[in-house]
Protein backbone atom coordinates (compact mmCIF):
# COMPACT_ATOMS: atom_id res chain seq x y z
CA UNK A 1 0.00 0.00 0.00
CA UNK A 2 1.09 3.53 -0.75
CA UNK A 3 -0.61 5.74 1.81
CA UNK A 4 -0.21 9.50 2.12
CA UNK A 5 -0.67 9.08 5.88
CA UNK A 6 0.97 5.88 7.08
CA UNK A 7 -0.44 6.46 10.59
CA UNK A 8 -3.78 5.18 9.29
CA UNK A 9 -2.41 1.64 8.97
CA UNK A 10 -2.51 0.22 12.50
CA UNK A 11 -1.69 -3.43 13.19
CA UNK A 12 -3.18 -3.32 16.65
CA UNK A 13 -6.28 -3.47 18.78
CA UNK A 14 -7.66 -0.23 20.24
CA UNK A 15 -8.77 -0.27 23.90
CA UNK A 16 -9.47 2.82 26.00
CA UNK A 17 -7.49 5.06 23.68
CA UNK A 18 -4.43 2.79 23.72
CA UNK A 19 -3.00 0.74 20.85
CA UNK A 20 -2.34 -2.90 21.72
CA UNK A 21 0.25 -4.30 19.28
CA UNK A 22 0.82 -8.04 19.01
CA UNK A 23 1.53 -10.17 15.91
CA UNK A 24 -0.76 -13.09 16.72
CA UNK A 25 -2.55 -13.45 13.39
CA UNK A 26 -1.90 -12.69 9.73
CA UNK A 27 -4.17 -10.65 7.48
CA UNK A 28 -3.94 -11.59 3.80
CA UNK A 29 -4.41 -9.54 0.66
CA UNK A 30 -7.16 -11.53 -1.14
CA UNK A 31 -5.85 -10.57 -4.59
CA UNK A 32 -2.37 -12.00 -4.01
CA UNK A 33 -2.67 -14.32 -1.03
CA UNK A 34 0.34 -12.52 0.49
CA UNK A 35 0.52 -11.25 4.05
CA UNK A 36 -0.75 -7.69 4.29
CA UNK A 37 -0.10 -7.32 8.02
CA UNK A 38 -0.73 -8.75 11.47
CA UNK A 39 -3.10 -8.20 14.37
CA UNK A 40 -3.58 -9.27 17.99
CA UNK A 41 -5.89 -12.18 18.73
CA UNK A 42 -7.75 -10.54 21.61
CA UNK A 43 -8.67 -12.60 24.64
CA UNK A 44 -11.66 -12.60 26.98
CA UNK A 45 -9.63 -10.51 29.43
CA UNK A 46 -8.94 -7.86 26.81
CA UNK A 47 -12.59 -7.91 25.82
CA UNK A 48 -13.53 -7.24 29.43
CA UNK A 49 -11.05 -4.35 29.45
CA UNK A 50 -12.75 -2.83 26.42
CA UNK A 51 -16.20 -3.25 27.98
CA UNK A 52 -15.00 -1.59 31.20
CA UNK A 53 -13.47 1.28 29.22
CA UNK A 54 -16.71 1.82 27.31
CA UNK A 55 -18.70 1.75 30.55
CA UNK A 56 -16.46 4.38 32.15
CA UNK A 57 -16.47 6.57 29.03
CA UNK A 58 -20.26 6.38 28.89
CA UNK A 59 -20.54 8.69 31.90
CA UNK A 60 -18.96 11.63 30.15
CA UNK A 61 -20.17 10.84 26.64
CA UNK A 62 -23.88 10.73 27.49
CA UNK A 63 -23.49 13.92 29.56
CA UNK A 64 -22.51 15.90 26.46
CA UNK A 65 -25.26 17.85 24.77
CA UNK A 66 -26.65 16.54 21.51
CA UNK A 67 -24.97 19.48 19.76
CA UNK A 68 -21.58 18.65 21.25
CA UNK A 69 -21.82 15.03 20.08
CA UNK A 70 -23.03 16.21 16.67
CA UNK A 71 -20.03 18.53 16.29
CA UNK A 72 -17.61 15.70 17.14
CA UNK A 73 -19.30 13.40 14.64
CA UNK A 74 -19.10 16.07 11.93
CA UNK A 75 -15.40 16.55 12.63
CA UNK A 76 -14.98 12.77 12.23
CA UNK A 77 -16.99 12.87 8.99
CA UNK A 78 -14.82 15.65 7.57
CA UNK A 79 -11.63 13.74 8.36
CA UNK A 80 -13.01 10.68 6.56
CA UNK A 81 -13.52 12.69 3.41
CA UNK A 82 -10.14 14.41 3.72
CA UNK A 83 -8.47 10.98 3.95
CA UNK A 84 -10.78 9.20 1.51
CA UNK A 85 -8.01 8.13 -0.88
CA UNK A 86 -5.97 6.46 1.85
CA UNK A 87 -9.04 4.84 3.42
CA UNK A 88 -10.00 3.45 0.00
CA UNK A 89 -6.52 2.05 -0.67
CA UNK A 90 -6.51 0.38 2.73
CA UNK A 91 -9.98 -1.07 2.12
CA UNK A 92 -9.05 -2.45 -1.30
CA UNK A 93 -5.86 -4.02 0.05
CA UNK A 94 -7.66 -5.98 2.77
CA UNK A 95 -11.03 -6.65 1.10
CA UNK A 96 -10.18 -6.79 -2.61
CA UNK A 97 -12.90 -4.67 -4.21
CA UNK A 98 -11.88 -2.35 -7.07
CA UNK A 99 -10.47 0.97 -5.93
CA UNK A 100 -13.32 2.94 -7.51
CA UNK A 101 -15.83 0.89 -5.51
CA UNK A 102 -13.75 1.35 -2.37
CA UNK A 103 -13.81 5.12 -2.81
CA UNK A 104 -17.57 4.88 -3.19
CA UNK A 105 -17.80 2.94 0.06
CA UNK A 106 -15.80 5.58 1.93
CA UNK A 107 -18.22 8.29 0.78
CA UNK A 108 -21.17 6.01 1.60
CA UNK A 109 -19.77 5.27 5.06
CA UNK A 110 -19.17 8.94 5.77
CA UNK A 111 -22.75 9.74 4.77
CA UNK A 112 -24.03 7.79 7.80
CA UNK A 113 -21.83 9.82 10.13
CA UNK A 114 -23.16 13.07 8.68
CA UNK A 115 -26.76 11.87 8.76
CA UNK A 116 -26.65 10.78 12.39
CA UNK A 117 -24.71 13.88 13.44
CA UNK A 118 -27.73 15.76 12.17
CA UNK A 119 -30.18 13.32 13.77
CA UNK A 120 -28.49 13.77 17.17
CA UNK A 121 -30.17 17.17 17.44
CA UNK A 122 -33.59 15.67 16.72
CA UNK A 123 -33.77 13.13 19.57
CA UNK A 124 -37.08 14.11 21.08
CA UNK A 125 -39.50 12.82 23.69
CA UNK A 126 -43.10 13.93 24.21
CA UNK A 127 -45.58 14.93 26.91
CA UNK A 128 -48.54 12.62 27.57
CA UNK A 129 -51.76 14.10 28.99
CA UNK A 130 -52.25 12.68 32.47
CA UNK A 131 -55.56 11.13 33.55
CA UNK A 132 -54.88 12.43 37.09
CA UNK A 133 -55.15 16.13 38.03
CA UNK A 134 -51.90 17.79 39.12
CA UNK A 135 -49.73 15.30 37.30
CA UNK A 136 -47.70 15.24 34.07
CA UNK A 137 -46.12 12.35 32.18
CA UNK A 138 -42.97 12.85 30.14
CA UNK A 139 -41.72 10.20 27.67
CA UNK A 140 -37.96 10.73 27.52
CA UNK A 141 -35.37 9.20 25.20
CA UNK A 142 -32.13 7.94 26.75
CA UNK A 143 -29.13 6.01 25.37
CA UNK A 144 -29.25 2.23 25.67
CA UNK A 145 -25.75 2.01 27.13
CA UNK A 146 -22.61 0.15 26.11
CA UNK A 147 -23.09 -1.49 22.69
CA UNK A 148 -21.31 -4.40 21.02
CA UNK A 149 -20.85 -4.08 17.26
CA UNK A 150 -19.88 -7.08 15.11
CA UNK A 151 -19.28 -6.30 11.43
CA UNK A 152 -18.59 -8.35 8.26
CA UNK A 153 -15.77 -8.26 5.74
CA UNK A 154 -17.69 -7.22 2.63
CA UNK A 155 -18.13 -3.55 3.62
CA UNK A 156 -15.51 -3.04 6.35
CA UNK A 157 -15.89 0.74 6.47
CA UNK A 158 -19.59 1.39 5.88
CA UNK A 159 -20.94 -1.39 8.09
CA UNK A 160 -19.09 0.17 11.01
CA UNK A 161 -20.24 3.74 10.40
CA UNK A 162 -23.84 2.62 9.79
CA UNK A 163 -23.90 1.03 13.25
CA UNK A 164 -21.55 3.23 15.25
CA UNK A 165 -22.69 6.69 14.12
CA UNK A 166 -26.29 6.37 15.41
CA UNK A 167 -25.05 4.87 18.67
CA UNK A 168 -22.60 7.69 19.26
CA UNK A 169 -25.22 10.28 18.33
CA UNK A 170 -27.60 8.74 20.88
CA UNK A 171 -24.98 8.87 23.64
CA UNK A 172 -23.85 5.22 23.63
CA UNK A 173 -20.28 3.91 23.68
CA UNK A 174 -18.98 1.09 21.49
CA UNK A 175 -16.98 -2.13 21.55
CA UNK A 176 -16.39 -3.11 17.94
CA UNK A 177 -15.38 -6.53 16.60
CA UNK A 178 -14.53 -6.22 12.88
CA UNK A 179 -14.01 -9.27 10.71
CA UNK A 180 -10.64 -10.90 11.18
CA UNK A 181 -10.30 -10.75 7.36
CA UNK A 182 -10.63 -6.94 7.30
CA UNK A 183 -9.61 -5.27 10.59
CA UNK A 184 -7.62 -2.33 9.25
CA UNK A 185 -10.47 -0.16 8.01
CA UNK A 186 -11.99 -0.16 11.51
CA UNK A 187 -8.67 0.80 13.09
CA UNK A 188 -8.11 3.63 10.60
CA UNK A 189 -11.50 5.03 11.59
CA UNK A 190 -10.34 5.03 15.22
CA UNK A 191 -7.23 7.03 14.27
CA UNK A 192 -9.49 9.64 12.70
CA UNK A 193 -11.90 9.55 15.65
CA UNK A 194 -9.00 10.40 17.96
CA UNK A 195 -8.07 13.33 15.75
CA UNK A 196 -11.68 14.49 15.72
CA UNK A 197 -11.62 14.70 19.50
CA UNK A 198 -13.82 11.73 20.37
CA UNK A 199 -12.75 10.80 23.93
CA UNK A 200 -10.87 7.63 24.80
CA UNK A 201 -13.05 4.63 25.66
CA UNK A 202 -15.95 5.82 23.52
CA UNK A 203 -14.72 3.64 20.64
CA UNK A 204 -12.88 0.34 21.21
CA UNK A 205 -11.83 -2.18 18.54
CA UNK A 206 -11.03 -5.82 19.32
CA UNK A 207 -9.19 -7.75 16.62
CA UNK A 208 -8.82 -11.50 16.28
CA UNK A 209 -10.94 -14.61 16.08
CA UNK A 210 -14.61 -14.11 16.89
CA UNK A 211 -15.42 -16.99 19.25
CA UNK A 212 -13.85 -15.81 22.52
CA UNK A 213 -14.55 -12.12 21.90
CA UNK A 214 -18.15 -12.78 20.88
CA UNK A 215 -18.89 -15.04 23.84
CA UNK A 216 -17.54 -12.44 26.25
CA UNK A 217 -19.58 -9.65 24.67
CA UNK A 218 -22.83 -11.62 24.64
CA UNK A 219 -22.63 -12.80 28.26
CA UNK A 220 -21.70 -9.38 29.63
CA UNK A 221 -24.40 -7.66 31.66
CA UNK A 222 -22.70 -4.33 31.01
CA UNK A 223 -23.26 -4.61 27.26
CA UNK A 224 -26.90 -3.63 26.75
CA UNK A 225 -27.18 -3.94 22.97
CA UNK A 226 -25.63 -6.00 20.20
CA UNK A 227 -25.69 -5.11 16.51
CA UNK A 228 -24.53 -7.74 14.03
CA UNK A 229 -24.35 -8.06 10.26
CA UNK A 230 -23.60 -11.51 8.86
CA UNK A 231 -25.10 -14.92 8.28
CA UNK A 232 -28.47 -16.03 9.63
CA UNK A 233 -26.80 -19.01 11.32
CA UNK A 234 -24.42 -16.82 13.32
CA UNK A 235 -27.13 -14.23 13.99
CA UNK A 236 -29.35 -16.89 15.54
CA UNK A 237 -26.43 -18.14 17.67
CA UNK A 238 -25.70 -14.62 18.92
CA UNK A 239 -29.38 -14.07 19.73
CA UNK A 240 -29.37 -17.28 21.76
CA UNK A 241 -26.23 -16.21 23.61
CA UNK A 242 -27.74 -12.76 24.33
CA UNK A 243 -31.01 -14.16 25.68
CA UNK A 244 -29.87 -14.64 29.31
CA UNK A 245 -28.92 -10.94 29.56
CA UNK A 246 -31.93 -9.73 27.51
CA UNK A 247 -29.88 -7.49 25.25
CA UNK A 248 -31.48 -5.26 22.66
CA UNK A 249 -30.65 -6.73 19.23
CA UNK A 250 -30.17 -5.43 15.71
CA UNK A 251 -29.51 -8.28 13.28
CA UNK A 252 -28.94 -7.75 9.56
CA UNK A 253 -28.69 -11.29 8.23
CA UNK A 254 -28.74 -13.35 5.06
CA UNK A 255 -30.73 -12.72 1.91
CA UNK A 256 -31.94 -14.40 -1.26
CA UNK A 257 -33.02 -11.44 -3.34
CA UNK A 258 -35.34 -11.93 -6.31
CA UNK A 259 -34.87 -9.64 -9.31
CA UNK A 260 -38.09 -9.71 -11.35
CA UNK A 261 -38.36 -8.30 -14.87
CA UNK A 262 -41.82 -8.11 -16.46
CA UNK A 263 -42.58 -8.03 -20.20
CA UNK A 264 -43.51 -4.34 -20.07
CA UNK A 265 -40.25 -3.27 -18.41
CA UNK A 266 -37.68 -1.05 -20.07
CA UNK A 267 -35.12 -3.78 -20.73
CA UNK A 268 -32.13 -1.44 -20.82
CA UNK A 269 -33.08 0.02 -17.44
CA UNK A 270 -33.48 -3.52 -16.09
CA UNK A 271 -30.06 -4.54 -17.45
CA UNK A 272 -28.45 -1.52 -15.78
CA UNK A 273 -30.20 -2.47 -12.55
CA UNK A 274 -29.04 -6.07 -12.84
CA UNK A 275 -25.42 -5.02 -13.31
CA UNK A 276 -25.57 -2.67 -10.33
CA UNK A 277 -27.28 -5.15 -8.04
CA UNK A 278 -25.69 -8.46 -9.04
CA UNK A 279 -22.09 -7.51 -9.74
CA UNK A 280 -21.34 -4.79 -7.19
CA UNK A 281 -18.51 -5.97 -4.95
CA UNK A 282 -18.29 -9.09 -7.10
CA UNK A 283 -21.71 -10.22 -5.92
CA UNK A 284 -20.52 -10.30 -2.32
CA UNK A 285 -23.37 -8.28 -0.84
CA UNK A 286 -26.37 -9.34 1.22
CA UNK A 287 -28.75 -7.40 -1.04
CA UNK A 288 -27.40 -8.48 -4.41
CA UNK A 289 -29.79 -10.14 -6.85
CA UNK A 290 -29.54 -13.88 -6.23
CA UNK A 291 -32.43 -15.08 -8.44
CA UNK A 292 -33.24 -13.25 -11.69
CA UNK A 293 -36.81 -13.94 -12.79
CA UNK A 294 -37.63 -12.80 -16.32
CA UNK A 295 -41.02 -13.04 -18.02
CA UNK A 296 -41.16 -15.33 -21.04
CA UNK A 297 -41.87 -12.62 -23.63
CA UNK A 298 -38.53 -10.88 -23.13
CA UNK A 299 -36.49 -13.74 -21.69
CA UNK A 300 -34.21 -14.38 -24.67
CA UNK A 301 -33.55 -10.68 -25.29
CA UNK A 302 -32.76 -10.07 -21.62
CA UNK A 303 -30.37 -13.04 -21.43
CA UNK A 304 -28.50 -11.95 -24.57
CA UNK A 305 -28.12 -8.34 -23.44
CA UNK A 306 -27.04 -9.26 -19.92
CA UNK A 307 -24.51 -11.79 -21.22
CA UNK A 308 -22.96 -9.12 -23.46
CA UNK A 309 -22.56 -6.74 -20.52
CA UNK A 310 -21.11 -9.45 -18.27
CA UNK A 311 -18.59 -10.53 -20.91
CA UNK A 312 -17.32 -6.92 -20.94
CA UNK A 313 -16.50 -6.93 -17.22
CA UNK A 314 -12.82 -6.77 -16.34
CA UNK A 315 -11.59 -9.04 -13.54
CA UNK A 316 -8.38 -8.46 -11.62
CA UNK A 317 -6.67 -7.03 -8.56
CA UNK A 318 -8.66 -4.14 -7.15
CA UNK A 319 -5.62 -1.84 -7.22
CA UNK A 320 -5.32 -2.16 -11.03
CA UNK A 321 -6.90 0.45 -13.30
CA UNK A 322 -10.21 -0.26 -14.99
CA UNK A 323 -11.11 -3.33 -12.92
CA UNK A 324 -14.81 -4.11 -12.39
CA UNK A 325 -14.55 -7.21 -10.19
CA UNK A 326 -11.79 -8.02 -7.75
CA UNK A 327 -10.95 -11.28 -5.97
CA UNK A 328 -13.34 -13.18 -3.76
CA UNK A 329 -12.55 -12.91 -0.07
CA UNK A 330 -11.10 -16.44 0.34
CA UNK A 331 -10.99 -20.00 -1.01
CA UNK A 332 -14.17 -21.01 0.85
CA UNK A 333 -16.10 -18.35 -1.07
CA UNK A 334 -14.72 -19.67 -4.38
CA UNK A 335 -15.63 -23.25 -3.42
CA UNK A 336 -19.23 -22.26 -2.67
CA UNK A 337 -19.59 -20.43 -5.99
CA UNK A 338 -18.16 -23.40 -7.90
CA UNK A 339 -20.49 -25.78 -6.06
CA UNK A 340 -23.55 -23.74 -7.05
CA UNK A 341 -22.47 -23.48 -10.68
CA UNK A 342 -21.68 -27.19 -10.98
CA UNK A 343 -25.04 -28.10 -9.43
CA UNK A 344 -26.90 -25.78 -11.79
CA UNK A 345 -25.15 -27.10 -14.89
CA UNK A 346 -25.81 -30.68 -13.82
CA UNK A 347 -29.52 -29.87 -13.49
CA UNK A 348 -29.90 -28.33 -16.93
CA UNK A 349 -28.73 -24.72 -16.74
CA UNK A 350 -26.61 -23.42 -19.61
CA UNK A 351 -23.76 -20.96 -19.41
CA UNK A 352 -24.16 -18.14 -21.97
CA UNK A 353 -21.05 -16.09 -21.20
CA UNK A 354 -17.48 -16.74 -22.29
CA UNK A 355 -15.22 -18.73 -19.98
CA UNK A 356 -12.13 -16.97 -18.64
CA UNK A 357 -8.83 -18.41 -17.47
CA UNK A 358 -8.48 -16.83 -14.04
CA UNK A 359 -6.29 -17.24 -10.99
CA UNK A 360 -7.88 -19.43 -8.30
CA UNK A 361 -8.56 -16.38 -6.09
CA UNK A 362 -10.97 -14.91 -8.65
CA UNK A 363 -14.47 -16.00 -9.64
CA UNK A 364 -15.52 -15.98 -13.28
CA UNK A 365 -18.55 -13.67 -13.75
CA UNK A 366 -21.23 -15.50 -15.67
CA UNK A 367 -24.87 -15.70 -16.76
CA UNK A 368 -26.73 -19.01 -16.55
CA UNK A 369 -29.98 -19.45 -18.47
CA UNK A 370 -32.52 -22.17 -17.74
CA UNK A 371 -32.28 -21.89 -13.96
CA UNK A 372 -34.90 -23.80 -11.96
CA UNK A 373 -36.07 -23.76 -8.35
CA UNK A 374 -34.54 -27.15 -7.52
CA UNK A 375 -31.00 -25.80 -7.89
CA UNK A 376 -28.78 -24.84 -4.95
CA UNK A 377 -28.50 -21.27 -6.18
CA UNK A 378 -32.28 -20.89 -5.90
CA UNK A 379 -32.28 -21.66 -2.18
CA UNK A 380 -28.85 -20.42 -0.99
CA UNK A 381 -26.94 -17.16 -1.33
CA UNK A 382 -24.22 -17.67 -3.92
CA UNK A 383 -22.36 -14.54 -2.78
CA UNK A 384 -20.48 -14.27 -6.05
CA UNK A 385 -20.74 -12.95 -9.62
CA UNK A 386 -23.13 -15.60 -10.96
CA UNK A 387 -26.47 -14.52 -12.46
CA UNK A 388 -28.99 -17.38 -12.85
CA UNK A 389 -31.98 -16.50 -15.03
CA UNK A 390 -35.35 -18.14 -14.27
CA UNK A 391 -38.26 -17.93 -16.72
CA UNK A 392 -41.82 -17.21 -15.57
CA UNK A 393 -45.14 -16.75 -17.34
CA UNK A 394 -47.53 -14.88 -15.01
CA UNK A 395 -47.35 -12.26 -12.28
CA UNK A 396 -48.77 -14.74 -9.79
CA UNK A 397 -46.04 -17.24 -10.61
CA UNK A 398 -43.33 -14.59 -10.21
CA UNK A 399 -44.66 -13.57 -6.80
CA UNK A 400 -44.79 -17.17 -5.61
CA UNK A 401 -41.20 -17.81 -6.68
CA UNK A 402 -39.98 -14.49 -5.26
CA UNK A 403 -41.51 -15.17 -1.84
CA UNK A 404 -40.51 -18.84 -1.88
CA UNK A 405 -37.61 -18.36 0.54
CA UNK A 406 -37.28 -18.06 4.32
CA UNK A 407 -35.28 -14.87 3.76
CA UNK A 408 -36.75 -11.41 3.36
CA UNK A 409 -34.07 -8.77 2.97
CA UNK A 410 -34.13 -7.24 -0.53
CA UNK A 411 -36.23 -7.62 -3.68
CA UNK A 412 -36.20 -5.82 -7.03
CA UNK A 413 -38.72 -5.65 -9.83
CA UNK A 414 -39.02 -3.82 -13.13
CA UNK A 415 -42.26 -2.75 -14.77
CA UNK A 416 -43.80 0.34 -16.37
CA UNK A 417 -47.31 -0.64 -15.24
CA UNK A 418 -48.15 1.58 -12.26
CA UNK A 419 -51.01 -0.61 -11.04
CA UNK A 420 -48.75 -3.67 -11.13
CA UNK A 421 -46.02 -1.74 -9.29
CA UNK A 422 -48.24 -1.15 -6.27
CA UNK A 423 -49.86 -4.58 -6.44
CA UNK A 424 -46.59 -6.50 -6.70
CA UNK A 425 -44.91 -4.45 -3.98
CA UNK A 426 -47.83 -5.18 -1.65
CA UNK A 427 -47.32 -8.90 -2.20
CA UNK A 428 -43.55 -9.02 -1.65
CA UNK A 429 -42.35 -10.24 1.77
CA UNK A 430 -39.14 -8.23 2.01
CA UNK A 431 -37.87 -5.32 4.09
CA UNK A 432 -36.30 -3.54 1.10
CA UNK A 433 -37.94 -3.29 -2.32
CA UNK A 434 -36.62 -1.54 -5.41
CA UNK A 435 -38.83 -0.60 -8.36
CA UNK A 436 -36.88 0.03 -11.58
CA UNK A 437 -33.61 0.42 -9.65
CA UNK A 438 -30.78 -1.82 -8.54
CA UNK A 439 -29.70 0.42 -5.63
CA UNK A 440 -31.46 0.30 -2.26
CA UNK A 441 -29.17 1.69 0.42
CA UNK A 442 -28.91 5.33 1.46
CA UNK A 443 -28.28 6.92 4.85
CA UNK A 444 -31.71 8.55 4.64
CA UNK A 445 -33.63 5.28 4.14
CA UNK A 446 -34.32 2.46 6.65
CA UNK A 447 -32.35 -0.71 5.90
CA UNK A 448 -33.21 -4.18 7.20
CA UNK A 449 -35.11 -7.38 6.56
CA UNK A 450 -37.97 -9.58 7.72
CA UNK A 451 -38.30 -13.31 8.34
CA UNK A 452 -34.86 -14.98 8.53
CA UNK A 453 -33.14 -11.81 7.35
CA UNK A 454 -33.07 -10.16 10.74
CA UNK A 455 -34.40 -7.72 13.29
CA UNK A 456 -34.37 -3.93 13.45
CA UNK A 457 -33.44 -1.20 10.99
CA UNK A 458 -30.30 0.78 10.22
CA UNK A 459 -30.12 4.21 8.61
CA UNK A 460 -32.88 6.83 8.55
CA UNK A 461 -34.62 8.01 11.71
CA UNK A 462 -35.27 4.37 12.63
CA UNK A 463 -31.51 3.79 12.91
CA UNK A 464 -31.03 6.06 15.90
CA UNK A 465 -34.14 4.74 17.65
CA UNK A 466 -32.39 1.35 17.86
CA UNK A 467 -29.90 2.93 20.31
CA UNK A 468 -32.47 4.67 22.52
CA UNK A 469 -34.74 3.56 25.34
CA UNK A 470 -37.92 5.33 26.41
CA UNK A 471 -38.28 6.38 30.07
CA UNK A 472 -41.71 7.39 31.38
CA UNK A 473 -41.23 10.21 33.90
CA UNK A 474 -44.37 10.67 36.07
CA UNK A 475 -44.46 14.05 37.83
CA UNK A 476 -46.95 14.59 40.63
CA UNK A 477 -47.77 17.42 43.02
CA UNK A 478 -48.06 19.99 40.25
From TrEMBL:
<dbReference type="InterPro" id="IPR010102">
    <property type="entry name" value="Succ_semiAld_DH"/>
</dbReference>
<dbReference type="InterPro" id="IPR016161">
    <property type="entry name" value="Ald_DH/histidinol_DH"/>
</dbReference>
<dbReference type="Pfam" id="PF00171">
    <property type="entry name" value="Aldedh"/>
</dbReference>
<dbReference type="GO" id="GO:0009450">
    <property type="term" value="P:gamma-aminobutyric acid catabolic process"/>
</dbReference>
<comment type="similarity">
    <text>Belongs to the aldehyde dehydrogenase family.</text>
</comment>
<dbReference type="InterPro" id="IPR050740">
    <property type="entry name" value="Aldehyde_DH_Superfamily"/>
</dbReference>
<dbReference type="InterPro" id="IPR015590">
    <property type="entry name" value="Aldehyde_DH_dom"/>
</dbReference>
<dbReference type="InterPro" id="IPR016162">
    <property type="entry name" value="Ald_DH_N"/>
</dbReference>
<dbReference type="InterPro" id="IPR029510">
    <property type="entry name" value="Ald_DH_CS_GLU"/>
</dbReference>
<keyword id="KW-0560">Oxidoreductase</keyword>
<dbReference type="GO" id="GO:0004777">
    <property type="term" value="F:succinate-semialdehyde dehydrogenase (NAD+) activity"/>
</dbReference>
<dbReference type="InterPro" id="IPR016163">
    <property type="entry name" value="Ald_DH_C"/>
</dbReference>
<protein>
    <submittedName>
        <fullName>Succinate-semialdehyde dehydrogenase</fullName>
        <ecNumber>1.2.1.16</ecNumber>
    </submittedName>
</protein>
<feature type="domain" description="Aldehyde dehydrogenase">
    <location>
        <begin position="23"/>
        <end position="472"/>
    </location>
</feature>
<dbReference type="InterPro" id="IPR016160">
    <property type="entry name" value="Ald_DH_CS_CYS"/>
</dbReference>
<feature type="active site">
    <location>
        <position position="252"/>
    </location>
</feature>
Amino acid sequence: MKLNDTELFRQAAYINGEWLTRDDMEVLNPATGLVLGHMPDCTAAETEMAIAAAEEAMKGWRALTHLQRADLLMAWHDLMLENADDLARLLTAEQGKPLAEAKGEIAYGASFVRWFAEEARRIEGHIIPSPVPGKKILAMKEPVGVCAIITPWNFPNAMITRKVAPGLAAGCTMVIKPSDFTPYSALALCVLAERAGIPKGVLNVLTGRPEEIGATLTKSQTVRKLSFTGSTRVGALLAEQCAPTLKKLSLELGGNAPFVVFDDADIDVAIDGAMASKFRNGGQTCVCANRMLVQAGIYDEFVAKLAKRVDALKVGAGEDAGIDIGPMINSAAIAKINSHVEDALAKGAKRVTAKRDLDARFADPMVLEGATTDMKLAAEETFGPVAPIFKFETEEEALEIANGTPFGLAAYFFTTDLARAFRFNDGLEFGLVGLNTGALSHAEAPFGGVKFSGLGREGAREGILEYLETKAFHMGGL
